Amino acid sequence: MAKRPNAPAPRTAAPLRRTKADVRPKWADIFLAALADTSNVAAAARAASIDVSTAYTRRRLNHEFNREWQVALCEGYDNLEMELLCRLRTGEVKPAAGAKKGVRSFDNATALRLLAAHRESTTRERAQRQHTGVEDIRAAIDRKVDELRRRVMEAKAQRDAAAMAHAILPTQQNPT
Q: Each residue of 7-57: pLDDT tens digit?
């Protein structure tokens, strides 16, 4: 088909305008790094010297920032899980009243509750990262949480048994 000499030029799409939501703010990298370190939005906002509402607004308006936020949170909860596993294996040394040495403590109930509270968001993020089904990841997380609970209960049972043995067995008195 021949081109008409007086035909109007074909219309092209208008160039996309960049909005404020498209321009990456200077604080974003600091915020995301702190979020990965702390798993705490308020602490990350303080580290980036911004208001918490600024971060939430950015997350709502910018899909890429929202994705990075989820990745940082997932990384933070992975770190928390590793710290919890370390505490379960080694315990925490806390000072005992009037003693020169500390007492090893294995109290992890709060950390277990925190992991359980964020199970859904970490499950989603891991599934997206690994292209794994949500059911498989939930099952793996459930197995880990069950194992952590079992270890906590074993440690508690050992402490209780030691306390019971100490209460039942008479203490030897030094002859003077």
A: 666 566 555 555 665 688 999 999 999 999 998 999 999 999 999 999 999
Report DSSP letters for 125-143, one per residue. Answer: HHHHHHT--HHHHHHHHHH
Identify the CA nearest to 74 among candidates 116, 15, 129. Answer: 129
**SS3 state at 102:** strand
pLDDT 10s digits, 102-141? 777 766 676 677 677 777 777 777 777 776 677 777 888 8
What is the tens place of the pLDDT at every residue in 79-94?
887 887 777 667 777 7
Domain ranges for the chain, please list them.
Answer: 28-92+107-167
- Any idea what DSSP says for residue 53? H
User: How many Cα atoms within 13 Å fall on the side-chain side of residue 132?
Assistant: 15
- Residue recorded with tokens 């909860």: 77
